[in-house]
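Hi U.,

Before I forget, here's the chain from the pilot set. I'm dumping it here mostly so it's searchable later in email.
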Amino acid sequence: MEKLLNSTDAEYDKPQAAGVWNGSTAFVALCFVYAVVVYVQQHFVMTHELYYNTLGEQLTVERIDAVLKLRSRYEWMAFAMIPLTVFLQALLISICLSTGAILMDYKVSFGRVFGMVMKALTIFALGKALYVMVLLLIDVQTMDDLIRADVFSLLGWIGKDGLPDWLLYPLGVLSVFEIIFWVLLAVGMGNLLGRPARQMPGFIAVTYGLGLLVWLALVVFLQLNLQ
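Structure:
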């Protein structure tokens, strides 16, 4: 695991390393997996019947048809946004970790941190792939079924009944794969800094953990104001 997460810059420059699992390869793999997930969700999960079942009591058939036409017209945007979303996610996490390293006087280049983060992010792609497989195995009739199918997150176990809408996103973020991601970051940063991974959870908590809290607070703030 440590070797997988933490190839050095020198190793990237070796000719024989062209085919190894590095940050660039991880980026391509992430984009590919997310593209497949989006395609499957759009064509086999988020069907027209699901929209009619979910919105049937709120909107007329004509309005639902208009929503579906709009979705069909702009569904390409979901694919176009994948590379940008993956890059920005890795960039923001790397900034948090690198800032913490600078403040603690750790010597590590931003490029190495970015490459490690990009590789660690593949755990979320695996999570999305498993989630969409669960969706294909169950009978999805409404949007609420999408939440219940997320057996890997705290929200999937608790359910949305009785919960305020602003709490849904934070509970959805708290998942098995989020925990694994923290472990991968601890292992990766420990290797980059030449320290045991067991010494890194505190560093990850005050860098990535703080950044994640800020992000969750921002999303919740926007949800409350948009409502």
